[in-house]
Write a structure and sequence with these properties.
The chain is α+β, with helices and mostly antiparallel strands. 31% of the residues lie in helices and 23% in strands. A five-stranded mixed β-sheet has the order 3-2-1-5-8.
Length: 256
């Protein structure tokens, strides 16, 4: 039976860091529910306590609000703990503690209206030189035709293949407007800015095919930027990779 990915709450988590993000999201919801209920009760109390029938005359004495002051201080402390104690360390760890590229899969993902171009480095594992002036309908990645390192590179449109239980480093860039690379099951969302190359990394713990979406409105065809993340075993990935590389060598397919 196929595992249900989306339900009434969060999608399934297939990443090594997702459980920490889920824990933070759940506690944020608990905190917001407590605030909603607490302030709702206080609002009803004020409506009843200070209704016109009970207070026919105005009161000019200063209001003593010690309890509300303490509550506000408590809210600030909790928010600071969630932000400084949990959110910022998690963000710093995810952004700074990158895996060693020698022990990770490395790909480039180039966003455009309206597709994800996944750039694989070919059998030599070296990415060819790219530049905007080389981008054409037959060369979507903008590979320099004079660079030998790019001769075996290939492009998979809207499909990112990766190995399960192995870190992957993704170099994100955009050709035109701001996009946002989002994989819900990985708890990953990263804006892709034209003129910048932004690195993200993750590690999947389950095999399967999952959604890649664009989380930034990028034009009339925004809805079309739906890709697939294919998480597979080392053997299955090698078989797929070798097939793509062989097609480039024999000229049976033109990826650019």
């Amino acid at each position: 039976m196929e595992e249900k990915i989306y339900g009434y709450w969060l999608p399934i988590d297939i990443s090594t860091h997702g459980h920490v993000i889920d824990w933070l999201i759940n506690w944020l919801h608990v905190f917001m529910i407590a605030l909603f209920v607490g302030w709702g009760v206080f609002f009803v109390y004020c409506l009843v306590k200070f209704r016109k029938g009970s207070n026919p005359h105005a009161t000019y004495d200063p209001v003593k609000g010690k309890v509300s002051k303490y509550v506000e201080i408590g809210v600030v402390i909790v928010e600071a703990l969630l932000l400084v104690g949990l959110s910022m360390p998690l963000w710093a760890q995810f952004k700074n503690d990158f895996p060693d590229p020698a022990n990770a899969q490395v790909v480039r993902v180039v966003a455009e209206q309206f597709a994800w171009n996944v750039h694989y480095g070919g059998k030599d594992g070296v990415f060819g030189r790219t530049a905007p002036q080389f981008v054409t309908s037959d060369n979507l990645l903008g590979l320099d035709p004079d660079d030998d390192a790019g001769k075996d590179d290939f492009n998979a449109i809207n499909t990112l293949h990766m190995v399960v239980d192995k870190p992957i480093i993704v170099h994100l860039s955009a050709k035109d407007v701001i996009h946002s690379f989002k994989v819900p099951v990985l708890r990953l969302t990263q804006d892709v800015i034209p003129g910048q190359e932004i690195k993200v990394w993750f590690e999947a713990t389950k095999t399967g095919t999952f959604d890649i979406a664009c989380a930034q409105l990028c034009g009339l065809g925004h809805y079309r930027m739906r890709g697939q993340l294919v998480v597979e075993s080392e053997e299955a990935f090698k078989t797929w990779f070798d097939e793509q590389a062989s097609e480039i060598e024999t000229g049976e397919d033109d990826f650019f």
